[in-house]
Design brief:
The chain has 495 residues and is mainly alpha-helical. It has 18 helices and four strands. Helix 1 (8-27) crosses helix 2 (33-47) and helix 7 packs antiparallel against helix 8.
C-alpha cells in the first residue's frame, strides 16, 4: 500500500501540530505565542517538507488563510459598538485622522529617503504600518487589569485603526494598480470598495439577525457567525472587492443591529480561535524567506523605528487636539505598538496583487513586513503593558462579582427543586460556556455543596449565591439564574 503524505489535510495537520508545539515552547519563556508560531513557520520552510514547499503547494491553503483573515476582520468590526463609543467620539475621530495621515507619512519618508526603497514598496509598507493588534491589546489589558481613560481609548481605538489601515491600503493599491486616473481613479476605487463591501456586510448581518429572531436558536449562534464570515468574504472577492473590508463591516453591522448576538457567539468563536491562529501564523511564517531577512536587516530596523515614531506622533497629536490628559498623550502611542493579524492579511494581499513572493514588490514587502511584525510581537505586548503602568492604570480593574455577566451567562430556565439539583443545573450551563474552569464539573459541584453545608448562602429578598473558591482559579466566573415563581430553599426571610 502506497501512502501519500502530501495531502492538504495531512499537511495542515503537520503545520497545526508544529505551530502548537512551537507556540507552547516559546510561551514557556514568557514570550507571545504568536512569535513561536511565526518562528515555527520559518523552520518548516527551511525543512522544505513534501507538500509544504513555497509556491503552489502553500497556495492550496489560501482558503483557510482567507477564512482566518475574515474571522480577524469580523472581530475587529464587532468591537465597534456605537453605544459603547458614545463618550469618546472626539478622541477616536482625531486618532483615526492622525493615524491615517501621520503614521504612513513618517514610515514612507523614512523608507524612501533614508532607506532608498522603491516608491511602491515604501507606500505599501507605510499603509500596512497603520494596522494594530486588537486581540493582543485586549489580552494585555486583561492581564494588566487596567482601567482608565487611556485603556478605554486604546481598546476602542485599535479596532478603528485597523479599519483605517485597510482603507489606506486599498487606496494605495488602487493608485499603484491604476494606469490611468491617478488619485481620482484611486478615490473612486476606494469609494466603490467601501460602498460595495458595506452593502455585502450589511446583507449578511441582516440575514443572521432575521434567522436568530425566527428560526435559529442560541446553540447555533456560533455557526451562524461562521456563515457571515464565509459569505461576506466569498461575496466580496467574487465581486472584485476586499474580503477583509466586507467581514469588518459585517461584524460592525451585526454588533450594532443586535449586539447580544455578538456577545453570545463569543464563547463559540473563542473555542476555535486558538486552532485557527496557531495554523494561520505558522503559515505566515512559512511565507517569510528568512535567508532574505539578513540582507534587509537595516530596512527591518528602519521600518520598526519609523512605525514606532509614527504611532507616537500620531497618537500624541490626536490626544493633544482632543484635550486628553498628559498621561494619555504621552503613553497612547507606545501602547499602540503591537502589530497583528490584519497586517499579516495585508502582506498576503500584497503578494496576491503584485506578483507573489517571487516579485520584487511582493518579496520586499513580505520580508520586511513579516520580520518587523515578528519583532513587534516580541516587544509590542510588553510596550503596551509598560504604557498602561506608566499611565497609572495598571491593576485598577479589580475583580468584581458580576464581571462575568453577559447573555450566555444568564438563564431563566432553572431546573430542579433542591439545592443540589439547582446547583447542578447551573453548573451544567457554566461549564458549557466557560473554557477555563480549573476543576472538573463533578468536583466543582461537590465544593459548592460542601460550602453550602457549612452555612447557607441564601441571603434573603430572593437572593442566593452558592459558590466555591477553586484551587488555581484567578477569575470570578458564574451563572445568574432567575426563577419567575421563586424557589423554596429555607431562606432566612422565607422568600
Amino acid at each position: 500500500m502506497n501512502i501519500a503524505f502530501d495531502q492538504p489535510l495531512f499537511d495542515l495537520a503537520v503545520v497545526l501540530l508544529a505551530g502548537i508545539v512551537g507556540g507552547e515552547l516559546v510561551g514557556r519563556l514568557r514570550l507571545p505565542k504568536v512569535t513561536g508560531w511565526i518562528g515555527t513557520g520559518i523552520i518548516l520552510r527551511a525543512l522544505n517538507l513534501p507538500g509544504l514547499t513555497p509556491g503552489e503547494q502553500l497556495d492550496r491553503f489560501l482558503p483557510f488563510m482567507h477564512f482566518v483573515l475574515g474571522y480577524i476582520a469580523f472581530t475587529v468590526g464587532a468591537s465597534l459598538h456605537f453605544a459603547s463609543l458614545r463618550n469618546s467620539r472626539q478622541r477616536l475621530g482625531l486618532l483615526m485622522l492622525c493615524e491615517a495621515a501621520i503614521t504612513p507619512a513618517v514610515v514612507f519618508l523614512a523608507l524612501r529617503f533614508i532607506g532608498g526603497l522603491d516608491v511602491p514598496v515604501s507606500m505599501l509598507l507605510a499603509a500596512i504600518a497603520i494596522a494594530g493588534a486588537p486581540g493582543t491589546t485586549v489580552l494585555v489589558v486583561q492581564e494588566a487589569r487596567a482601567r482608565g481613560i487611556l485603556t478605554r481609548t486604546l481598546i476602542a481605538g485599535v479596532g478603528l485603526i485597523d479599519m483605517v489601515a485597510v482603507g489606506v491600503f486599498v487606496f494605495v493599491s488602487a493608485i499603484l494598480a491604476t494606469d490611468e486616473g491617478g488619485v481620482t481613479g484611486a478615490m473612486a476605487a476606494v469609494g466603490m470598495q467601501f460602498g460595495l463591501t458595506f452593502a455585502i456586510g450589511l446583507a449578511c448581518a441582516a440575514i443572521v439577525v432575521l434567522l436568530t429572531r425566527t428560526i435559529v436558536g442560541p446553540a447555533f449562534l456560533g455557526p451562524s457567525i461562521v456563515f457571515v464570515i464565509l459569505a461576506s468574504w466569498g461575496a466580496a472577492v467574487g465581486s472584485g472587492v476586499s474580503g477583509i473590508l466586507a467581514c469588518t463591516f459585517a461584524g460592525f453591522c451585526l454588533s450594532n443591529l443586535q449586539h447580544d448576538t455578538i456577545r453570545s457567539a463569543e464563547a463559540y468563536l473563542n473555542q476555535i480561535g486558538g486552532v485557527l491562529f496557531a495554523a494561520f501564523f505558522t503559515f505566515a511564517g512559512m511565507r517569510l524567506d528568512f535567508s532574505a531577512v539578513l540582507p534587509m536587516a537595516g530596512f527591518v530596523a528602519l521600518y520598526f523605528f519609523a512605525r514606532l515614531c509614527g504611532k507616537y506622533l500620531g497618537a500624541f497629536g490626536a490626544m493633544q487636539l482632543s484635550g486628553a490628559t498628559k498621561r494619555v498623550r504621552n503613553y497612547l502611542g507606545l501602547a499602540l505598538l503591537p502589530h497583528g493579524g490584519v497586517a499579516v492579511g495585508l502582506i498576503l494581499l500584497t503578494q496576491d496583487q503584485f506578483g507573489g513572493e517571487t516579485s520584487a514588490i511582493g518579496s520586499a514587502v513580505t520580508t520586511i513586513g513579516l520580520a518587523t511584525l515578528a519583532i513587534n510581537q516580541l516587544i509590542g505586548p510588553s510596550a503596551t503593558k509598560l504604557a498602561l503602568q506608566l499611565a497609572g492604570e495598571g491593576g485598577l480593574d479589580r475583580a468584581r462579582l458580576l464581571d462575568f455577566l453577559d447573555e450566555h451567562h444568564i438563564t431563566v430556565n432553572i431546573a430542579g427543586h433542591t439545592k443540589e439539583e439547582i446547583v447542578t443545573s447551573l453548573a451544567n450551563q457554566l461549564y458549557a460556556v466557560s473554557t477555563s474552569m480549573p476543576v472538573p464539573q463533578d468536583e466543582f459541584i461537590r465544593l459548592v455543596m460542601e460550602r453550602e453545608g457549612q452555612e447557607t448562602s441564601c441571603l434573603g429578598e430572593g437572593l442566593m449565591i452558592p459558590h466555591a473558591v477553586l484551587p488555581g482559579g484567578s477569575e470570578i466566573n458564574g451563572i445568574l439564574g432567575i426563577h419567575s415563581e421563586g424557589l423554596h430553599l429555607d431562606a432566612p426571610d422565607g422568600r
